[in-house]
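Data availability excerpt. The first of two example chains:
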Amino acid sequence: MKSIISLIALLLFFCNCTKKVEIDIITQKTAVLSSNTGKWQLNNVSENFIIQPLTAAQRSFIKNYTSNGKFSDTDGLNGTWTLPFQDTLIENYINFSSGITVTQKYFINILTTSQLNVTYVVNGKEITANYQAIP
């Protein structure tokens, strides 16, 4: 009986540590995403693993994430963002034409102080976008 209690206590300890590590990573990634100027310029886009040529507008496309959970971009979108998990970025904004609140979920492939690489699905197509931090 004593060994079962010890095993349960050990499992609870590791479960609590895992949760704390997850929160610390989220805090770190939140800081990285909104650090410096919080501005990220689009470098390249692939659709279903095929790199697409960027238009002039796409080459100058910039997203700005602030530390207070707001974001904006050069297309005129404004909204809020969160990192609920270490590999998930969620943006909420109002659709221009419909007025409906949109939730866009991104899988974070890479997030460093210089690079943001995310994947998301639009109309059944997997899109991967790579951004470079703007100092």
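And the second chain:
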Amino acid sequence: MPTPSFNIQSGSVSGTWPSKGGTFYWYNPTSSPVVLTNCGNFCTQDSYTVPAANSPSNGYLQVTLLTMPNANPYAFTDPAWNAPGMPHLQAPTMPDAEDDADTETDADREVA
């Protein structure tokens, strides 16, 4: 097993993490290749295709860290945040009752 390595399924790290500019291995224990994106803030490439565990590389892919990672706030993005169909917090769209008193009907005031 090449070290240091980062298991992309469990998040566990094997070996000692390298310093800036050093190398490590992504490890994919699954039976399908995995594409990792948004890595360009800390690695030399923005995306990586990590081979499956049953590939000739046994699921390992060597990666080089940047010598100057981007540590600024909000430097990382998560495309899952804008995934369609996912719930997101939104501002209420209903007007205040005081502002809408003129359009209130008997059905609005009726209590079950």
